[in-house]
């Protein structure tokens, strides 16, 4: 077989192995080793595997993964999510469908100190959904809002998907974080507009009964300040240090994890057993992410050795579809794969092939990463995989709540995300201006 044929066979073999249920990391390692051995020989494949393990995981940058994961888990158990919702609930209680908008912006703020969409979905399904249904919102809409706005966790920095993309694309993690701010705010505003339009033009979708407002005494100014202080402090520590240039991403992760630990201790929500469980979970997530990155790096080098990405770039960019046709085809493929497999797996499979094509097309690689993350996150809301939807269904523990009901509630937010992709295609500066400062 020619190197090109080996590369094509490797991609097809990877798809088959994943389809039959072999873990994606092992599938990538097996396909890559066999591919390099076929192009060169077993000795070269063995040496390359060792070099990949050394080159891809020794960077100081990778310390950011466990730190941000630990910070997100600590924030989740400390009750910061509920406090965030309480603050926005009081601020927006007079707005029509204000609790839906409050859920969106609570998720946006919570995302800025967690970076994990599933954590947002789990927290706000317990906090926001009961409050919204008590005020007359439909359960379909309430769960849909939580599912839709949870995707902000992987776009607004810190973001685990941004870190994975930065590593695979050899871009600055700090710049990727900065690039997520504008699109994250755009998506939050677009979600809020979509909620207002639904409440205005299709109230039967939003409300089961007439919307009620709580006219009770509410929270005093001092209580609101006490609830907002931990949120603002963590945001100032992490984002202020990162964007102000005082901290690099790894240092920001360390400061954020320590700050979240202090908050959890002061609130007495962290005992020894819980802390140990969080440390173990952090280790499991970190090891799985780093193993996948190593496997994806090996797969990328095997493809480069085969010459497949270069040939694909020439064929696509010189053909009738051109650069923008490639981008549309790529985004559609990402969204379709999101219906079947998880977010990180999609990036690890497609990016080694797509990145050389995107670079040859002259696309800004920071902007291309933001587009990729948004398209990948759509998969969290679409059947049959829809990980955020399954997380909400599990967290609610309501036997009468059907998955189809949550998927229907999330559908307007899927359409809103697709519209946001279109806006970012027309105005890429939304993603790049801050990262280029």
UniProtKB/TrEMBL annotation:
Entry's Gene Ontology molecular function annotations: transmembrane transporter activity
Domain spans labelled TRAP C4-dicarboxylate transport system permease DctM subunit: 12-430
Gene Ontology cellular component list: plasma membrane
Topology within the bilayer: Multi-pass membrane protein
Localization per Swiss-Prot or TrEMBL: Cell inner membrane
Pfam family, one: DctM
Family annotation (InterPro entries): DctM, TRAP_DctM
Keyword Endoplasmic reticulum: no
Annotated TM spans: 6-39, 60-81, 101-124, 145-168, 174-199, 228-246, 252-270, 282-304, 324-353, 365-386, 406-427
Keyword entries, A-Z: Cell inner membrane, Cell membrane, Membrane, Transmembrane, Transmembrane helix, Transport
Family of this protein: Belongs to the TRAP transporter large permease family.
Function: Part of the tripartite ATP-independent periplasmic (TRAP) transport system.
Subunit structure: The complex comprises the extracytoplasmic solute receptor protein and the two transmembrane proteins.
Protein name as catalogued: TRAP transporter large permease protein
Naturally occurring in which organism (per UniProt): Halovulum dunhuangense
């Amino acid at each position: 077989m020619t190197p090109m044929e080996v590369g094509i066979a490797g991609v097809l073999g990877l798809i088959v192995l994943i389809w039959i249920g072999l873990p994606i990391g092992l599938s990538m390692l097996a396909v890559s080793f066999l591919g390099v051995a076929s192009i060169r020989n077993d000795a070269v494949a063995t040496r390359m595997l060792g070099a990949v393990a050394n080159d891809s995981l020794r960077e100081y940058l990778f310390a950011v993964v466990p730190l941000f994961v630990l910070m997100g888990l600590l924030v989740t158990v400390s009750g910061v999510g509920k406090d965030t919702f309480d603050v926005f609930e009081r601020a927006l209680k007079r707005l029509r469908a204000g609790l839906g908008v409050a859920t969106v912006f609570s998720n946006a703020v919570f995302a800025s100190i967690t970076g994990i969409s599933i954590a947002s979905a789990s927290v706000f399904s317990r906090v926001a959904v009961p409050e919204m249904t008590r005020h007359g919102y439909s359960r379909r809409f309430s769960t849909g809002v939580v599912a839709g706005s949870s995707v902000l966790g992987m776009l607004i920095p810190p973001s685990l998907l941004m870190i994975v993309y930065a590593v695979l694309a050899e871009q600055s993690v700090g710049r990727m974080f900065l690039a997520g701010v504008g699109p994250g705010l755009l998506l939050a505003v677009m979600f809020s507009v979509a909620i207002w339009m639904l409440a205005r033009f299709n109230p039967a979708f939003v409300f089961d009964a007439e919307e009620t407002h709580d006219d009770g005494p509410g929270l005093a100014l001092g209580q609101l300040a006490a609830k907002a202080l931990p949120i603002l402090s963590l945001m100032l520590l992490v984002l202020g240090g990162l964007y102000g240039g005082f901290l690099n991403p790894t240092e920001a992760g360390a400061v954020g994890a320590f700050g979240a630990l202090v908050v959890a201790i002061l609130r007495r929500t962290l005992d020894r057993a819980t802390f140990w469980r969080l440390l173990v979970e952090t280790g499991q997530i970190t090891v799985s992410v780093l193993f996948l990155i190593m496997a994806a790096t090996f797969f990328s080098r095997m493809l480069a050795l085969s010459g497949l990405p270069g040939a694909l770039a020439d064929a696509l960019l010189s053909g009738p579809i051109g650069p923008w046709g490639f981008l549309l085809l790529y985004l559609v493929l990402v969204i379709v794969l999101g219906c079947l497999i998880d977010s990180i797996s999609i990036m690890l499979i497609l990016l080694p092939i797509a990145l050389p094509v995107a670079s040859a097309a002259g696309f800004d690689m920071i902007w291309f990463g933001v587009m990729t993350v948004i398209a990948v996150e759509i998969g969290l809301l679409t059947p049959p995989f829809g990980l955020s939807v399954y997380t909400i269904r599990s967290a609610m523990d309501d036997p009468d709540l059907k998955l189809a009901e949550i998927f229907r509630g999330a559908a307007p937010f899927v359409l809103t995300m697709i519209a946001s992709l279109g806006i970012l295609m027309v105005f890429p500066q939304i993603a790049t201006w801050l990262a280029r400062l």
